[in-house]
Write a structure and sequence with these properties.
This protein is mainly alpha-helical. Helices cover about 85% and strands about 0% of the residues. It has six helices and no strands. The longest helix is centred in the middle third of the chain and has 24 residues. The radius of gyration is 21 Å and the shape is elongated.
């Protein structure tokens, strides 16, 4: 009987925990899903000049186009994160973040870096 009582107690504790945290878990799950985009957007904000200079040097596209690319990348990532966390236009935000991934794959030449893709 001791093992059954222990299992019942564990189920009660788990049930109580889920009742208390039930309203926060969906938000936490969304935050975990978009954490990479959030981190990349914040890093891009703090490394603005380095990002712009890298795109300008790699693609020889000029200061203006490099700035537009970094701005699009930054706003796309942070805007998509905000929309997903606020549960507004989630489907469009996910498509936008997927587009950012595709854009970065080409712009940063990730598509041809097998070592990076394997990670």
């Amino acid at each position: 009987m001791g093992q059954e009582d222990l299992m019942n107690k564990a189920e009660d504790v788990a049930d109580q925990f889920l009742r208390v945290t039930k309203q926060y878990l969906p938000h936490l799950a969304r935050l975990c899903l978009i954490s990479t985009f959030l981190e990349d957007g914040i890093r891009m904000w703090f490394q603005w000049n380095e990002q712009r200079d890298y795109i300008e040097a790699t693609w020889n596209c000029g200061y203006f186009l490099a700035t537009c690319f970094v701005l699009l990348n930054l706003l796309g990532q942070l805007g998509g994160c905000v929309l997903i966390l606020s549960r507004n236009f989630v489907q469009y935000a996910c498509f936008g973040l997927f587009g950012i991934i595709a854009l970065q794959t080409v712009a940063y030449s990730i598509l041809w870096d097998l070592k990076f893709l394997m990670r």
